[in-house]
Amino acid sequence: MKNDLLNVLVCPNCKHRLELKNPETRGGEIVSGELQCQNCHNLYRISDGIPDLRLPSRNPDQTASSPH
Ligand SMILES: [Zn+2]
Predict the structure, then answer these.
(1) Do residues 42 and 59 touch, judged by C-beta distance below 8 A?
(2) Considering only Cβ atoms within 10 Å of each terminal Cβ, which end of the chain, N or C, has fewer?
(3) How many angstroms is it from 51 CA to the middle of ligand 1?
(4) Domains with residue ranges and CATH for the chain
C-alpha cells in the first residue's frame, strides 16, 4: 500500500485515525506492518501490501471489548 493511504484509512470500529507500526517498505510502498487505532487501539495487520481492516473476530470466551 502507498504511504498516502494512511491519510485516508480509518479504524472500521470507531472511524479514528490509524498509526503505522513496524512498517517494512519496499520500492516506496509499505509491504507489511501494523496499523493501530489511536482511539480504540485495535490492531490491523498489513500483509503483502494489503491492510486487513476487518474488525477482529470476537472470541466468545473473551469480554475484552468493554470501553474504558
Ligand atoms: Zn478505533
Answers:
(1) no
(2) C
(3) 15
(4) 3-51 (2.20.25)
C-alpha cell at 63: 469480554
Q: What is the 3-state secondary structure (H, E, C) of 18-39?
A: EEEEEEEEECCEEEEEEEEECC
Rounded-to-integer distance, Cα 18 and Cα 66, Å: 20
For 56, which DSSP code?
P
- The position carrying cell 507489511 is 32
10-residue averages of pLDDT along the chain (68 residues): 94 96 96 97 96 80 61
Ligand 1 mean position, distance from CA 59 (Å): 18
* CB 46 within 8 Å of CB 53: no
Q: Give 31 Cα–ligand 1 centroid separation in angstroms.
A: 22
Q: What is the value of pTM for the model shown?
A: 0.78
